[in-house]
From TrEMBL:
Descriptive protein name: N5-carboxyaminoimidazole ribonucleotide synthase
Any one GO molecular function term: oxidoreductase activity, acting on the CH-OH group of donors, NAD or NADP as acceptor
Matches recorded under InterPro entries: ATP-grasp, ATP-grasp_carboxylate-amine, ATP_grasp_subdomain_1, D-isomer_DH_CS1, PreATP-grasp_dom_sf, PurK, PurK_C, PurT/PurK_preATP-grasp
Record organism: Candidatus Viadribacter manganicus
Ligase is among the record's keywords: yes
Residues that bind ATP: R107, K147, G152, Y153, D154, G155, R156, G157, Q158, E189, H212, N266, E267
Domain ATP-grasp: 111-296
Gene3D superfamilies: 3.40.50.20, ATP-grasp fold, A domain (3.30.1490.20), ATP-grasp fold, B domain (3.30.470.20)
GO CC annotations on file: cytosol
Species lineage: Bacteria, Pseudomonadati, Pseudomonadota, Alphaproteobacteria, Hyphomonadales
Enzyme Commission no: 6.3.4.18
Length: 356
């Protein structure tokens, strides 16, 4: 495929903050964006040239969307496989590949895939009954975490099993097919964001060090406090996944760093990621621009980090502090334009650059 010229239209499935920041980056390169979302008045649609509001399973609406855009990408991984297929059937080019989206939608498939690609995972078992859970707990032991296989994010759909007694009735509470994972006594959490271009070139960003609160990312700092071999291992894992899927676009893998510096993969996201928001101000090419460059068939941009970084998520009512944050010369403020600040909802973020 030759590079899409400026003036082409990029289709984005999903209307959240990632779509919003992708749309802003696309506009900067001279593209128009058409958002397809099931949410009226979404954060992304308010900065995009066009929006189609429809159901992700409405084939006629998807075919119409496919006709209006030159490439389709997604800002969230839980796009039904049927949606991606309907778009391909309607002639759309979809990047990243639906196979990568499908793997990332199911925690069991994802962890099985990691093992097949020589990427370490916590011990895990598929759970579809209380009997499965009891057997898995007997094998893996406590503490452990029971998660839904599908549709979990930001710590939702998870039950911590601290002692064997916590396993009683836990399958019913989960209410859906699950996966039991051994608890990793990690030293820190990191993520790697990498991108692969249409020509197969790969670019890595520096590792993000991430802190979570209640299962939601709260703070990312760079440089991550890890050794060179850990960085090399993360890059190798990302390269394996990108090449195995003939992937085009940005990809994120989250890891636990164990006390000996080895990495255990938690999950992957076939998209830009919250832990990479700092790249808007702190890298020569933001993760959003990088993704747009990749899917448009443009050369990847340089990923060099220009400062030490602290990125803080504004969750729920945190965003009410916008007057103080706006007045803080050390904080670059981003607000996502969400209408109501529900608890646990990502409303914005601030990035602090420490220039040395
Ligand atoms: P997840 O939704 O799977 O990304 O989990 C959210 C957060 O819960 C992770 O970032 C970790 O802080 C914690 N967590 C999830 N799985 C495990 C595990 N197997 N061992 C230890 N902590 C975990």
């Amino acid at each position: 495929m030759s590079a899409l010229p400026p003036g082409s239209t990029i289709g984005i499935l999903g209307g959240g903050q990632l779509g919003r920041m992708l749309a802003i980056a696309a506009a900067q390169l001279g593209f128009d964006v058409c958002i397809f979302t099931d949410e009226p008045d979404s954060p992304a649609s308010r900065v995009a040239a066009k929006t189609m509001v429809g159901n992700y399973l409405d084939h006629a609406a998807l075919a119409d969307f496919a006709r209006r855009v030159q490439v389709v990408t997604t800002e969230f991984e839980n796009i039904p496989a049927e949606t991606a297929q309907a778009l391909i059937d309607a002639g759309a080019r979809v990047a990243p590949t639906p196979a990568a989206l499908a793997i990332a939608q199911d925690r069991f498939d994802e962890k099985s895939y990691f093992l097949s690609a020589a990427i370490q995972t916590p011990p895990f078992k598929a759970i579809s009954s209380q009997d499965d859970l009891d057997a898995a707990i007997a094998e893996i032991g406590a503490p452990a975490i029971l998660k839904t296989r599908r549709l979990g994010y930001d710590g939702r759909g998870q039950i911590r099993i601290k002692t064997l007694a916590d396993a009683q009735g836990a399958y019913e509470k989960l209410g859906a097919p699950g996966i039991l994972e051994g608890f990793c006594a990690f030293e820190r959490e990191v993520s790697i964001i990498a991108a692969r271009g249409i020509d197969g070139s790969i670019a890595f960003y520096d590792l993000n060090e991430n802190e979570h609160s209640g299962g939601i990312l709260s703070r990312t700092t760079l440089p991550a406090q890890v050794s060179e071999p850990t960085i090399v291992e993360a890059q190798k894992a990302a390269r394996n996944v990108l090449e195995a899927f003939d992937y085009v676009g940005a990809l994120t893998i989250e890891f636990f760093v164990m006390p000996d510096g080895s990495l255990i993969a938690n999950e992957m996201a076939p998209r830009v990621h919250n832990s990479g928001h700092w790249t808007i101000e702190g890298a020569l090419t933001s993760q959003f621009e990088q993704h747009i460059r990749a899917i448009a068939g443009w050369p990847l941009g340089p990923t060099t980090r220009t400062a030490n970084i602290e990125m803080l998520n504004l969750i729920g009512e945190d965003a009410n502090a916008w007057p103080q944050l706006a007045a803080d010369p050390t904080a670059r403020l981003h607000l996502y334009g969400k209408r109501d600040a529900r608890a646990g909802r990502k409303m914005g973020h601030v990035t602090k650059l420490k220039l040395s």
